[in-house]
Each structure stands twice: as C-alpha cells, then as structure tokens.
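re the bet — no i am not wrong, look at it urself. input seq straight from the record:
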Amino acid sequence: MIAVGLLAYLTTALVVALVVWRNLPSSYQLGGAKGFALLLSLNLFLPVLGMLFTGIILLFSLYFPEDQKAVNTRQFEVPDLPHTPQEEVAPLYSHGGLRAVLKHADSSDKRQAAVLSTRHMKDKDAIPILRLVLNDLEDDVRLLAYSLLDQKESRINANIYYLNLLLGQKTGVDRKARILRKLAECYWELGYLGITEGELKRFVLAESVRYGEEAISIADNLATRLLLGRAYLALDDPGAAREHLLFAFDSNSAKQQVLPYLAEAAFKQKRYNEVKQYLKDIPQVQQNLALRAVKEYWS
C-alpha cells in the first residue's frame, strides 16, 4: 500500500514538473536537465506545497503578472544650452581687494579663491599677484599659484615652439616677416608680463629684439618698431629705443601711443626739456593714475 502511494506521489510530481517545464517561457528554460531537476526536486521534497508552488503560483505569476501602478510623469522640453561650457567672467574680487585678501585673510580657502579669480584678469595684472602668492605659507595656495603661472608660461613657450617650426619651413618673405614679428611679441610677453626675472628676463628681451630687428629688416612695421623701442628701454638702452620710437612717432597713427615711451627714453638720456614736452603732449584721456602723477610732477 505504501509502495503504491509512493509510486503515485512520484508520478504526480513528475507529471507536474513536466507540465510546468513545458509551459515555462523559453527564456526561463535555462540549464536544460538541471532546471527540470530543480522543479522535480521542489515537487518531491516539498509535498503538496512544492506542486502548488510550481504548478499554480509560478505559472500564474508568470502569465498573469500584477498590473503596475501608473506612474505620473511630466514631459519637459530640452532647454537650449551652449555647445561648450562657459565660465563666469565676473571676478570674485577687485584688484585691490585681491591683494588684501592674499595678504591678510587667515583662511586658506579664501586665499585659494582669490588666486583662482586671477584667471579672469589680464595677464599683466594677474602675474604680479600670482608672484606675490608664491611666498604664501600654505602649500596648497602656493602650488596653485605655481600652476597658474606655469600654464601661462607654457602657453607662450608652445607658441614660440610652433613659430620656430614655421620659421624653419620654406616660406614667402611677407609670411616670414609676420612669423618673426610674432616671435618677437612672444618673447616680449615673457619679459613684459613678469613671468621671467633676472638674467632670464634679459635673455628673452634680447631674443625679442633679435627677432624684431630681423622682422623690420624684411618688412618695416610700426607695431614692431614700438615693441623694439619698449624692449630696448627694458634692456636699459635708451639710445636704440629712441631711434625706433621716433620712427613710430613720425606716423600720426602711433604718435600719441609713443609719447610716454619717448618721455622715458629722454629721461634716461637726461634730456629733461624733452621729457616735459612729451608729457605735455599726452592727451588727458590716455593718462592713467601713474602717468597723471608723473605729468603733474614735471609740469
């Protein structure tokens, strides 16, 4: 009797397993015999409950899933965005406030924010401030200033490298003159902006003069003459500076721009009467605070 009941139980378990296996979706019929053996094991070792689970609950839940509750959604239009990220151009501090923060702020975070705000300033204004920060006691602030200075210097040096490559190629006379002018401007920028100091500064200024002189020997240019005049002044050669500045002065388009540098060259040559005359001729609108003070002193 027990044997008959056990045989009937095994047969029922096997039939239920076969029916469930054949009705399972194909994506669930994984593992072949192993998957079928799992179903049969559930039916054999969980009497009644295993068959109920595999035969009713499993199939019913697969073919008649519970309806998902409706999810409230809202559709938004895609906003118009710029093709490239844009930085906020408004500086965090004014120039005077920037120096005050860097000198007196106890918080290194404030000093770092002040250093970062120099990215929105002209290089001529930013570089002296960054050099001031190189003496900061906080490593993070000091290294940030070094990084920004290095970026500016690397940009100029990359331009110099590229221009030298172009200069080594065969090119027309006019294009060669333009390349030489650009090289003179790059070297002048290294010296004028204060990125270099000491003997290195004299070297880059001398290179600016060399390329500038070669450029005007090919094709004369007023902007290059003015640059040469300023470079010679920085090298403390007022005679050579005066020669180029007077050449630019003869052009009405550059006359007012040259006057302050002619006054400086005249002062270094001790031509004091000329200093007064040049300063007198500088228009009021062209005068900044420093130039206005100099003019008042000499008037």
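see?? The first helix runs from residue 2 to 23. told u. also The two ends are 133 Å apart (CA to CA). so pay up
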